[in-house]
UniProtKB/TrEMBL annotation:
Signal peptide: none annotated. Coiled coil: none annotated. InterPro entries: Tauto_MSAD (IPR037479), Tautomerase/MIF_sf (IPR014347). This is Tautomerase-like protein. It comes from the Bacteria.
């Protein structure tokens, strides 16, 4: 699951395109299937979103929650692909993008009535 935060006036107009960019990077780097898009956008009022100095109102936070198993090199490749794609397609410079990857053990994920360590039919690999 991916959660994206930003100032609503900047985030709302680009939500669909940003979702496409994020999912494309998830597919190319992690091998995620087309139908595994789980994005949540949290548009905030400017007065509710404090961010570091030197950033513009386009400052956007992307939190990526995933089951543990991806190599450090794979995660770094995903982060760099996101920075590059967002800058080239939306003209938001990397200084205005913050990306965090939060990993949880498979037993800490619950979906389809089971936990992630019990699932046997994923159509993508977690250990990449």
């Amino acid at each position: 699951m991916i959660v994206v935060y930003g100032i609503k006036e900047k985030l709302n107009p680009i939500k669909a395109q940003l979702s496409d960019i994020i999912h494309s990077c998830m597919q190319s780097i992690l091998g995620m299937p087309e139908d595994k898009r789980a994005h949540r956008f949290i548009p905030l009022q400017k007065e509710d979103f404090y961010y570091p100095g030197g950033r513009s109102d386009a400052y956007t936070v992307i939190e990526i929650n995933m089951m543990a198993g991806r190599k450090a090199e794979t995660q770094k490749a995903l982060i760099k692909a996101l920075f590059n794609s967002i800058e080239s397609e939306l003209s938001i410079p990397p200084i205005d993008i913050e990306i965090t990857i939060k990993e949880q053990a498979p037993y800490q994920w619950g979906f389809r009535g089971i936990t992630g360590d019990e699932v046997t039919d994923l159509n993508y690999k977690v250990n990449v």
